[in-house]
Amino acid sequence: MSEAKMKYDWDDAKSCYEAGMFYFTNEERNRDKINKGINLLKQACKLGSPEASFMMGKLVWEGYIDIKKPGARNEAMKLLFYAASQGEVQARVLLNEICNVRYREKFEETYGQEAVTGPLKDFNGEEIKIKCKGLRTPIDAVLTYENGKNVLTFRADVSIISAGTGRPSDEVCQAILSGIQDWAGEYTVFGGQQLTVVVDLEENVKLFDVLDVFIMDEGTKQLMRQVAERVDVLSGGNASKNVNAMIKSNRSFAAMNKEWKVKGKKTIFIRCKENEIENYEHIRGVARHEFGHILGLGDLYYEEAKGFDGVEKGTYDELDPYHITDKIYHLAMCDNHGTISNNDIEMIVLAFSENAVQNYQPTSWNYEVSEALGKGN
Ligand SMILES: [Zn+2]
Q: Do 99 and 203 have their domain in common?
């Protein structure tokens, strides 16, 4: 396509993005054409194009577009963050990379140290023991030390349910399982000790000790309302009121007994808008976040209305490399369902070894902040 023949609509994000990219990839590009391309990409960003936001973010971050004003890199982060939150996979990958590099730079000294060996020890040098199995334990957690390696294995039967369609599509199930599986990996915890996390899942419909994942489609909501109404008739409580409030809140969430304990029923409700139900990355992110709750983590939200104070940049060394903007961090337990850090894993180890929820911030209901925060690494 020649430049003269190209038509683009300044009010259409996709059209602006494609035209902008044309100038970039055109073989005869020169500074003038590149500037035209940049202007089109900027326009596409304004119109909310996630692809353009990713491209602009990447170009600014990598210094290809030289923005003189201070804070240009922050602007780039914001653009990448927006693109990632819209399901742009490449933007998420780049954000993960940027945050991981910043984290490693910050803790190079810790990583540079001689490797710490032996069974996993906590901040006081006490050996950590985790052996959670058996009745009413939906997530088995076992910490082993073999051949010089610490391995924390989580095992769960997962039952994915949609009252509307029975079992949701394979793609939705796969997205949920991969979000849970994201917690597996190699981590460095408690001052330079290596820990391998294994997540062993099986899709199973069982009555007990199973992690139920409900897809909140119309059928599920209908069923929940009916059950609640029946409970109210039988017990005179306000189950209907609670269920309706929950359905209205438009959020995914994890449900536990009154407070998080290793033992006790655990359920995830995946709430998706109609246009998001087939968005693989979105569902995967939601599942990753909600499984964090199932593993005993609190939220890292900026939501004063919900009783959270929010965590300011500069509060905890180990969270700062993941800080993006305002009180938002690119972390799994944040609103944008970002990546998983060493610190998250440290907190999970504490949750299971101490049988207590681990919080990032005090809340109006006065939970303490996890001991893992502010310890570095
Ligand atoms: Zn949450």
A: no
List the domain range (segments joined by +) for residue 58: 13-106
Number of residues written out for the chain = 377
pLDDT band at residue 90 under the 50/70/90 scheme: very high
Domain match, 157 and 302 both = yes
Whether residue 134 sits in one domain with residue 160: yes
User: Which residues have CB less than 5 Å away from ligand 1 (the ion)?
Assistant: 299
Q: Are 156 and 150 in contact (CB under 8 A)?
A: no
The Å distance, Cα 300 to ligand 1 centre, comes to 8
Residues 184 and 49 both lie in one domain = no
pLDDT in tens, 93-140: 999 999 999 999 988 876 666 778 899 999 999 999 999 998 889 999
Query: Does residue 258 lie within any of the structural domains?
Result: yes
Please answer whether residues 214 and 267 qualify as being in contact, where contact means their C-beta atoms are separated by less than 8 angstroms: yes
pLDDT of residue 207: 76
In a domain, 360, yes or no: no
Domain co-membership, 28 together with 93: yes
Q: pTM for the whole thing?
A: 0.88
- pLDDT level of residue 4 (50, 70, 90 thresholds): very low
In the block, which residue shows the tokens 């609509």? 9
Q: Ligand 1 center to residue 221 CA distance, Å?
A: 20
